[in-house]
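Sample intake — Pathogenesis-related thaumatin-like protein 3.5
Collected from: Juglans regia
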Amino acid sequence: MAFHTHHVHLAVLWVLVIMISSGAKVSESARIFTIINNCKETIWPGVTPGGNFNGGGFELKQGQSMVFTAPVGWVGRIWGRTGCNFDKNGKGSCQTGACGSSLKCTASGKTPASLAEFTLAALDYYDVSLVDGFNLPILITPLHGSGNCSIAGCDGDLRTQCPSELAAKANGNVVACRSACDVFNTDEYCCRGVFGNPVTCQPTYYSKKFKSVCPTAYSYAYDDPTSIFTCSGTDYVVAFCSSRNQPVCTYHNNRLVCNESKGSKSSDERWWSLILASMLAVNYLYWTIS
């Protein structure tokens, strides 16, 4: 019996429908966030909005991690608080990153603080911002996704290289590095007024200092080209005080998933290889059977 052309067309269409609908299912699923503390001190991550993240705040001792799930559509930020002291009712204070007097944050943290920012959609956008200052090294590593999916953030410690005029101190120690906008409050440093656009708002001495230590983090408001990244259908590891060369893992569908080695294929490369192989197979059937 002849294998008619319309059968081939239907087969190709069926393959594409399966592939595309499966891909959409991946990109529209909830994202798994693993938050890790690799610092030598206890930190208290804050998250807003924090309904899916233990109410917006929690303690992480050195080496500890916690896993959360956020739905597609979540737009939020994660940061670390340091030098905190909370009572049994979750009331207290922090040296950096405080969101009022509560362990569980309902508002953004006080500057200066390093921020991990996310917009979850069919295509996620994520970045680490130092526009409001720096208090901890923080990296965002996407796992199990497709697209650009670069590591964002900073594994250098600006506290040790902070210009003295920007240094925030506690007990004689530099605990954070303030932004030039926060310290000097000028239109040039704050990218406002006549400096409120990408043409007139240019890198300054201080933003260049930040960028030299943290090349894949926002150093000023219009630092977009090297600071914002995209990925589809991915999970995220948000790690404090980690190296970008340090392997990171999370649990996805009840199995351990780790960041791939440089020599391995990315998920999107394997995906399109599968589509191409399927179409070639159908095409081969057509020419050999018809």
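Post-analysis note: DSSP finds five helices and 16 strands in the chain.
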